[in-house]
Write a structure and sequence with these properties.
Strand content: 15-25%
Strand order of the largest sheet: 1-5-4-3-2
Number of strands: 5
Number of helices: 1
Structural class: alpha+beta
Radius of gyration: 14 Å
Largest sheet: 5 strands, antiparallel
Order of helices and strands: EEEEEH
Shape: globular
Length: about 80
């Protein structure tokens, strides 16, 4: 099984950034059932922001588009996630 390319350390940040989140359209998974125990995602022009729905005042993680594709691809393929055995 091939390992997906993992994002370089600079592809994800929690440091201050020059991205305007004032008009970000945050959405959460329909699997959350409306509860505040999941993450929310906002697609921006060059990045994707991810935040904890329980603590929205905490700064979000900011992923490059490539890093987010790598993360989602790794989760979908089973390369990233719980090891069961």
């Amino acid at each position: 099984m091939s390992t997906p390319r993992m994002a370089a350390p600079h592809d994800v940040t929690t440091t201050p950034y020059d991205v305007d989140l004032a008009h970000a359209r945050w959405r959460k998974s329909s699997y959350s059932g409306g509860a505040n125990d999941c993450v929310e995602v906002a697609e921006l022009s060059e990045h994707t922001a991810v935040r904890d729905s329980k603590d929205i005042n905490r700064g979000p993680l900011l992923f490059t588009k490539a890093a987010m594709r790598s993360l989602i691809g790794g989760i979908g393929s089973g390369a990233i996630g719980e090891r069961r055995g």
